Amino acid sequence: MATLRNIMPISRDDAESETGWLAIPAAGEPEIRIGFASIEERRRVLDWLNDGLRAGRPGRLVSEYPLLFERNASAVHLTVWENDAPVAFCTLWAVTFRVGVHRLRTGLISLVYTDPAARGRGHARAVAQAAIEQAGRLELGLLVLWSELDRLYRPLGFDRAGHESLLVLDALLLEQAIDTARPDPGLRVERVSPADWLEIERLRGFRTCQLELDGGELARARTIPDLEVRVAKDSHGMRAFALRGRGDDFQEVVHEWGGDPEAALLCCQSLLEACAPWNELFLMTPPSHDPLAWRLRQAGAHRVHQPMGWMRIASPAAFAKDIAAMLPSLSEL
Ligand SMILES: CC(C)(COP(=O)(O)OP(=O)(O)OC[C@H]1O[C@@H](n2cnc3c(N)ncnc32)[C@H](O)[C@@H]1OP(=O)(O)O)[C@@H](O)C(=O)NCCC(=O)NCCS
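YS: structure for the whole thing
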């Protein structure tokens, strides 16, 4: 079997060029390219990837992942080429998590994909390995990804890390929780309007750990299809929000909420009512104390635990530096 070790930056200048790192092709062997050499190559890879992951819905993947594909210099795309065709792919997104007042440089690996005709030959593992090495070069302390595939990621040095809980929500349970919590009767729940996003961001900002996004990235994130948002307002303004769905992911999951838990219950209720014929939704909550989860648990919500994802250190030096700065607040991580 051909090895996939042909990634090599031609020079530091090339490495920092607009298209990212370049690879030297080795005749007859698969080759991993980092970035796209041309607009044509980018179009070809994205069309192939969209056909594989979102068949019959042209352009869907780019619209679901605007932060990765719309001119984002911190998103690195890695493609395995064989016989002048893309055969495997993944994306490494360099982000920063704000933890209290500190920062944790992190790489998120996503969209790992191998063409059906090329599966079982180590391409996914090789492209993920290339992403790990790239993350080290970019001085990202930590790498995180979400997957069920132990056999793919454990040999690459990833470990299961963290837990999250899903609470099962149905109409009766929400009614009971709302009865007990007695949200202000002056609250009204609405679909989100463009003017609401600034306030949603303010409410999100109260979290201890948060992915940092700039204004442009936030604006693009709002365009993701199949994102359902409810806001609860009173005469003073927004009191809470809740988000369900994100492209093809999280269709049945309220994956984000913020503000007063009593008001957020009303947002969850409205989201559930709008997804008939389903009669259940899930609420994703962190393992730490969460006031909304607590109210739902009091009302009898059933909880499903699941591992959060996979992590490994990419650049030990960068990780040590970031962690050393935040040691006093480590328990919040
Ligand atoms: C999952 C996927 C990327 C694997 O690609 P691949 O190139 O065939 O994977 P590799 O050949 O590098 O396999 C690496 C390891 O993962 C294991 N693996 C691959 N696909 C697997 C699957 N569907 N279920 C369980 N294990 C799997 C392989 O057995 C191999 O482990 P081994 O060496 O112990 O046998 C490919 O099947 C795919 O694109 N699927 C659709 C998209 C998808 O599910 N992506 C999510 C990835 S997180």
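YS: worth flagging: Residues 39-53 form the longest helix (15 residues).
IM: good catch. Also Residues 164-308 form a domain with the Aminopeptidase fold (CATH 3.40.630.30).
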